[in-house]
Amino acid sequence: MTARVLRRVAIFVVSVLVASIVVFLFMAVLPGDPAQVALGVNATPELLAKTRAEFGIDRPLVTQYFDWISGVLHGDFGRSYVTREAIGPQLLDRLGVTLWLVGAGMLVALVIALPAGTFAAVKHRKAAGAGVSGLSQIGVAIPAFLAGIILVQIFAVRLRWLPSGGWTPPDQDFGEFFRGLVLPALSLGLVQGAVLTRYVRSAVLDTLGQDYLRTARSKGLRPGQALVRHGLRNASVPVVTVLGLQLATLLIGAVVVERVFVLPGLGSMLLDAVSARDLLTVQGIVLVLVAGVLLVNFVVDVLYTVLDPRLRGS
């Protein structure tokens, strides 16, 4: 098991390194001059040359990459081409907002999907199970941003129970923080919960037909007891796979949801940087998002080993 985990760690490190190279090269080949963007169209050639030297973009690409990645490894993402402010502290603050949103969204999805998917599988031959499956299919077809708009219209505009947007740090006023997080988390969680419900149903339904579960029931266990004791762990392996993919989807989906609810997360920062053509900031944000997705995949691989004993000896 230890060798497998160490091998996955090595793959994760190499993947992040390759991703950093791809992100850097992609930003480097984009048209446009960061110095020209920062200074405007009326800048003199002398001032442009001075600014390029200040930004370090007049050096060879290999030198630029190693300077950038060595800084990233020490927490220094450089300075914004537009505002001249350090990118690292901004990334850290915005990342906290996004992690709160993604974590709350995933919690909502799990709270919905695990009982609903299990119920739909156990009752798959009855009207109640078919109804849950139908509702989940409808939820899959609704984009997260549309769910957010509908929730705002109902709970913020008409009922006035919750704010329509904005962000309050939890250390300032936890009550307002919680109220402001409810609708964005529901926007992400309801849609992803509908998707996850379909996979939980399929996994549990497949487990219910296994021989070992029928054997457990023949020994006197009730269907629910047999499922809890012997079935759910096996059913969780494919669900964990989908859960990892959904976490990556939530990270990307948060970009739009943050815009809808005016949350100062990585998504809003990314869109602002793109509109301002602040390529170094975009480069840092994309690397953080890619590294986050790779980290999720790494955790999922480790969970496979924990959940499935057959992988420990392979």
UniProtKB/TrEMBL annotation:
The chain crosses the membrane at residues 9-30, 99-122, 134-157, 177-196, 239-262, 282-307. It is a multi-pass membrane protein. GO terms for cellular component: plasma membrane. One of its GO terms (molecular function) is dipeptide transmembrane transporter activity. SUPFAM superfamilies: MetI-like. Gene3D superfamilies: MetI-like. This is ABC transporter permease. It comes from Amycolatopsis rifamycinica.
